[in-house]
Amino acid sequence: MKRVQFGHSPVPYLFVAPQIIIIAIFFLWPAAQAVHQSFLLEDAFGMSSQFVWFRNFEDVLSSPSWLKSAGFTVVFSVLVAVLSIAISLFLAVRADEIIRGAKVYKTLLMWGYAVAPPVAGLLGIMMFNPLMGDLYILLNRIGLDFNHIQNGNDATFVVVLIAVWKQVSVNFIFFLSGLQGIPKSVTEAATLDCKSAERRFWTITFPLLAPTTFFLMVINLTYAFFETFGIIDVSTKGAPGGATATLVYKVYVDGFLGADMGGSSAQSVLLMIMVSILTVFQFRFIERKVHY
Amino acid sequence: MFRKTLMAAAALFAMANTASAATEITWWHAMDGALGDVVNHIADDFNNSQSEYKVVPINKGGYEDTMTAGIAAFRAKNQPNIIQIFDAGAATIINAKGAVYPVQDLLEKYGSKFDINDYIPGVRYFYADSAGKMIGMPFNSSTPLLYFNKDALAKAGIQNPPKTWQEFEEMAPKLKEAGYEGLAESHSPWIFFENFMSRHNLQMATANNGYDSTDVELLYNNEDLKNHWKKMKEWKDAGYFGYYGRAWGANQDAFLQQKAAMWLGSSGSFGGLRKSATFDFGTSTLPYWKGVGDAPKSTFIGGASLFAFSGHSDEENKGVAAFFEFLTKPETQYYWHKETGYVPITTAAYDLAKKDGYYKESPDAEVGIQQLSEEGGKWTKGYRLGFYVQIREVIYSEVDKMMNGEETVDQAFDVIETEGNKLLKRFHDTYSN
């Protein structure tokens, strides 16, 4: 029989080596360090350290502020992922239907993508400034008694709004290209078979977009978990009363600001475990429903 | 083209040559913007005053970023000579045994002389150990002040700003009638926790405010401080106190936009406010409760100090000592004080400012240093508490909850006590072996 493989040439390994090295240096090694650190009580300058088994984890898991923050992270992530996917899907469908001036709409909707999270946070918090923020004044003028500086739910609304706004454009780009990838013949056939645009969307278009949606769900959850840090830091710093502190933000406060190496390492290990479970869950249970 | 390259190379060589002639002293600091310019100016003055050493100041971001950068550099054995560490981070660096070269030892070994009594009372022991040895060099020291809007007070028919909280309570309704909130306040942990204790000469933590040991517990959960916060809540509900959350700037803005007639902030804000306020304002000392503790006593300082990292050559340490001596010179301190609003840290510098007539032309600039020079008490020297950055986070969070009514004052202080002490215990277990 003819050999179809190239044999054991080292060349392919050479090609992937840069990637592997980068992953090893920038992910595997720090992750291993974090796991190691999470079992130690060590002073910030590394002058003394002791092995304490699970003390750091016990301290973290018994801390009311960490538990509160964990709860908020779950709520926040689900809200951000669901809302930003739903809104951008709606916008993408609408923009796809437009024939005249479509380019302008599309460009405008993509603009937000260029905004860095801390800048988005800054924009948001300026709009919600109690002394001069337009949205703050508007919400109060329509009689909502809105105050995100004192009310935890209002503060959650603000950070979710900023995070969603920032993410909508990314999702929009993916959905739009997904929509444009649907063959014209399929949509035309569907138009003949079914008059209701809404039913057509749910039975034909959306299932065809399912792989994109699944991909975006994974991306958006990761975004909500990790990349919203800049937004939180600039807009609320976790206030009021820790109501908007995500887990990543807490890791930053304890590790980066507070120099508690062991405690923040334990927190990041817990975070790693949570995200691993989430990933397994997504791929085992949700991906099954996706047809490529 | 070739000639250009050659010339550039020659210039580079010449520069490298002069640089290697002088011993380089690196200084990592957190002063950016206008403050950073003043820092650079001081470093240039020092470099021009002699040829043996060259101080290179590098801005590393905010206080926390600078500390983290220093920690990372130290762990990588690549630490700068001098690092600026803020008040809440002092315990972390001082308790890491051997990480720093105590400034008193450094000056006594390499400098000409050192006398702790040259420094004004408020800064003398804040960065010292329990035996009174100065570990960090006080640099940018500030203290909380009351800023007041003169027009607003006049409109309400008030002559003078309040000296005590009792007086404030009387004038707040008048201010409200005139259309103002009486007070806004920035940085609750610093002003209404730490400085509250100092102003009233109350003990803040066991073990001599934390100086004697890391085995320490907070004493915040006391009736005096709780009563103060009960009043704050009452005043907030009555519209006498405007609470704009934890952000420093938001509360300052309330004052700048003339919503609040008075604002509690830092003496270090003086220069900036003078530029941005569109109305006439004055400064006064931090009010106190008559009858609580033995107020009024001097307040704590805020801001930061400079630490000399260990692990450098004799030659470099000598340069650090020379630079520290330059920094404490009355002329340098007077310049720094005038440009930034931070207080002069030595009595000689204070005297120079007085002699120069600075306070005649700008009397409000003197209030901070007067307050720090007020009579001290047993508990006004300072505090030394580990993981204090996180303890401040707990305080911020609990103040939010007190103000929005999510928790009562008593509940909030119970949380501050248990969470704070848990953090102190962790710090003790980390640093005591």
Short characterization:
The complex is a heterodimer of chains A (about 290) and B (about 425). Chain A has about 290 residues and is an all-alpha fold.
Write up what this structure looks like.
The complex is a heterodimer of chains A (292) and B (433). By secondary structure, chain A is mostly helical. Chain A has one domain: MetI-like (MetI-like fold, Orthogonal Bundle), CATH 1.10.3720.10. In chain A, 72% of the residues lie in helices and 2% in strands. Chain A contains twelve helices and two strands, in the order H-E-E-H-H-H-H-H-H-H-H-H-H-H. Chain A has helices spanning 11-37, 55-61, 64-97, 102-110, 117-127, 134-141, 152-180, 184-193, 197-227, 229-235, 247-257, 261-286; strands spanning 40-42, 49-51. Chain A has a two-stranded antiparallel ribbon with strand order 1-2. In chain A, a hairpin with a 6-residue loop joins strand 1 (40-42) and strand 2 (49-51). In chain A, helix 5 (117-127) packs across helix 7, helix 5 runs parallel beside helix 10 and helix 8 packs across helix 9 (197-227). Chain A is globular. Chain A starts with 10 loop residues before the first helix and ends in a 6-residue tail after the last helix. The relative contact order of chain B is 0.16. Chain B is built from 20 helices and ten strands. Chain B is 51% helix and 13% strand. With 433 residues, chain B is α/β, with parallel strands linked by helices. Chain B has two domains: 23-142 and 302-373, 3-Layer(aba) Sandwich (D-Maltodextrin-Binding Protein, domain 2); 144-300 and 386-432, D-Maltodextrin-Binding Protein, domain 2 (3-Layer(aba) Sandwich). Chain A binds chain B through residues 41-48, 50, 52, 55, 59, 63-65, 129-132, 149-152, 237-242, 253-254, 256-260, 262-263, and chain B through 64, 67-68, 71, 74-75, 89, 92-93, 95-99, 243-247, 250, 253-254, 257, 259, 387, 389-390, 393-394, 396-398, 400-401, 403-404, 406, 415, 419, 422, 426, 429-431, 433. Chain A: One of its GO terms (biological process) is transmembrane transport. Chain A: Residues 74-282 form the ABC transmembrane type-1 domain. Chain A: It is found in: Cell inner membrane; Cell membrane. Chain A: InterPro entries: MetI-like, MetI-like_sf, UgpAE/MalFG_permease. Chain A: It comes from Thalassospira marina. Chain B: Part of the ABC transporter complex UgpBAEC involved in sn-glycerol-3-phosphate (G3P) import. Binds G3P.
